[in-house]
Amino acid sequence: MTSFSPHPVYAEDQPYAQTILYLHVMRASAMSFSFLSLFQIPASLIAARYRKMPIDYSVVFARTLKTSGRGLVIGTAAGAIMTWGHMMGREEMEWKDRSWRILANTGEVKTDWVTLGGAGAGAVAGLVTARRGVIPATVGTAVLGGAGVGMASGVPYMIASFAAGRRPA
């Protein structure tokens, strides 16, 4: 998402610095919150086994889409609030420098694209499953939750890229 912005040679020439930084942190926060919401799946399965209840996987997946959608929305809002709180009172050059470093880091740009692609694929999968009646969820919940599940794919990608030697921005 942020890679659509121009990347000049020098940080002091970076346009749209605040927008780039807000988008980056909101994407990272939404990705993290969506990923954390996926831990609801094993918790539901363990609880059902403990209570000796039959497991209806369509309900578990519908609940997962619901929590993932909530994680996506809450994470996006939290990212905006965190950026505002952290950068409040900072000089324009600090915004430009941080944004320039994000765009200069190819690992960050690739993570943006993997996350965006995962969100798009998840949204389409959520739409198809809801429209076909595979999962008992509304179309809006399924699309938003599918986008959250897809966006969560950025976390394993990011971990793998750091394990392969990527440097932080």
From TrEMBL:
Q: Per its UniProt entry, which superkingdom is the organism in?
A: Eukaryota
Q: Which InterPro entries match?
A: DUF1757 (IPR013869)
| Keyword Transmembrane helix tagged | yes
Transmembrane residue ranges: 20-48, 69-87, 113-130, 142-164
Q: Does the keyword Cytoplasm apply?
A: no
Keywords of the record: Membrane, Transmembrane, Transmembrane helix
Which Pfam family is one of those matched by this entry? DUF1757
Query: Can you say what this protein is called?
Result: Uncharacterized protein
